[in-house]
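Deviation from plan, reported transparently: (S)-3-Hydroxyhexanoyl-CoA complex.
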Amino acid sequence: MSGVVKTEIRDGLAILTIDNPPVNALSIDVRRGLSQAIENVSEDTQVRAVVITCAGCTFISGADIREFGKPFQPPNLTDVISQIDGCNKPVIAAIHGVALGGGLEVALGCHFRIATKDAKLGLPEVKLGLLPGAGGTQRLPRAVGPELAVRMIVSGEPISAAAALNSGLIDEVVDGSAATGGETFARTILAEEIPIRRLRDDDSKLLAARNNRTIFTDAVAAVNKKNRGLEALVAAADAVGWSLDVPFDEALTRESNVFLKLMSGDQSKAQRYAFFAERDAAKIVDLPAGTEPRRVATVAIIGAGTMGGGIAMSFANAGVPVTLLELAQEPLDHGLNIIRKNYEATAARSGLSADWVSERLNLINGAVGLAEAKDADLVVEAVYETMVVKLDVFKKLDQLAKPGAVLATNTSFLDVNKIGAATKRPQDVIGLHFFSPANVMRLCEIVRGYKTAPDVLATGVAIARRIGKVPAVVGVCHGFVGNRMLMVRGKQADKLLLEGVLPQQVDAVITKFGMPMGPFAMLDLAGLDIGWRSRKDRGETSEIEDALCEAGRFGQKTGKGYYRYEQGSRSPLPDTDVENLITNTWARRGLKRRAVSDDEILDRILYPMINEGARILEEGIAARASDIDVVWLYGYGWPIHRGGPMYYADEIGLAQVAERLSYQSAIDGDASLRPSSLLSRLASSGQTFASFNRSRDH
Ligand code: 3H9
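Because the crystal trials were delayed, the predicted structure below was used instead.
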């Protein structure tokens, strides 16, 4: 008997317990163990029914992703599930925690399924650039109907136990443990002589859809509308469609072939990389062993503006009570009102109840002044992005916050060390840089100052994860990781305008690459006046952007910027006034317009960003290249199937990136474009960013 699958026989029932920490993934040992156990119990005349359950915090979380891309070892999961399906005794899946991917496919191969109240069930394979490859695309439509099946598979989002019960995915929701619930259910099946139900033989939920294929064409159309190039989504929707007219076994073979094809493709490779990069980013490389995060039960947020409000919503969404602080009643009421409207809009859009709205609103209190911050375990400052204002807030906080409270700034550019030095407790000060809209964007840069204590850093990471954010630890520099690279991108985009390119061409290249927005549309969204004011303060200029601002074109908020916007619309429309302004600039400067190819635009935008990423890595501002990728994936919408800028560079080959940068640096006479020393070194030795290990190579 395999060590990871244990069989216990009790009074005619075989309880098969999978115990493969941390998340009971279907490793080779689990597949072998399950196969062997099913064979044994099928032959054991004492056994009348079988319960499959899991030890630890969850049911099976899916195939073992670490095995993908490595030589395959039998048995394959589809065969193990066929064995379960073909078992001559009723098999019951007893689910707690999550049943995901191959885990749900195992459950669908069982004859009955029960789950605990808090369980979640789903097929998230598309998030890894795959489709369910062990029968999920064929059994799920038979369990819940093709309409819900296609939605679940294409979104990859799990559903709750209650929704699973409603849809027919499970047979019962149980109180108490899954194992006990499964056992009781199995005994009932035996007592009531309920016959075995094999989903493969049950077409009843497919009948209506057989004459109405529009649900698939609609699903594919919906996917294509939003899809920025993910091939797994379309493949998954297609595969669910086979359930209507392709014989079950043939559909399984097709599904398996497509799964293997996707798995060996570039997109899935990048998406699997992103999965592990996200988890690695939460690991602090040099954290002393045994460091525990501080306890955070109460949170105060200073500033009820857009950022403060979004941050408050993030905490409330995770059930953490917050107090929102403002200088005066009027801006506080305004901020709270916007939060309420945001929740109401979400509820209306997603069919959620008024109770859902009030549950969240009840977790957000407001108060005028800073005094209420005195009891908070964590204070997040989200005031105006100016050093003087931030220093003033931190000096005051130092006077009133309780000892041991974590004091965080949400600055997006400023020096966290300087902010810490304004207090007598710099060890308690940290940056928690949320991205706008903070209640939606998943990234949180955890900025560690020179003096930030290890347990404060650990608290930053832990709290970010607790509220569903993806943390990435970064060091102090102007703009940290994300905005520092964004500034480099902006400078290159500006340069292209002076060479004959129009904003819409640059933006089209970047959106075709898969980013949600190009640099100019993004500037219009953020507001051009912010950069204009800060350039003026620093005595800097940007010829075209300054001219746009002088003409009152601040972006979406004024209905025009690099683009024009129709009343009530956020769609950027090319504007002849802007084109004239740009052509006049060329004429005035005596510049000769040059046709620049899309490929050149892409390289000239991305390679300097990668070069900056290399500097960030070399300086130790990011500990791993994959942390930089995480910042761009979750903070700026870098397309997941391209893994992130550093991964993208590794895939192209660093020699090509370095060579192209050297060439452009010579043409432009711009030393900042020269390959950084790390990039040059890795490129000349044929290495990758992924292979760079600071403690070894620096
Ligand atoms: C599939 O099933 C294909 C089939 O259709 C067909 C096959 C033929 N494998 O996220 P956490 C590790 S595709 C290997 O921090 P949480 C993870 O790397 C699969 N390792 O915990 C981490 O390791 P470390 C479909 C896995 O509590 C540790 O477990 N399934 C896997 O926040 C803890 O992870 C999915 O896509 C795995 N499948 O969340 C589910 N899963 O400590 C993917 C996790 O070394 N997993 N690890 O960094 C998840 O969504 C979350 O991990 C889960 C737990 C919700 C399970």
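The chain has a mean pLDDT of 95. We consider this an acceptable substitute for the interim report.
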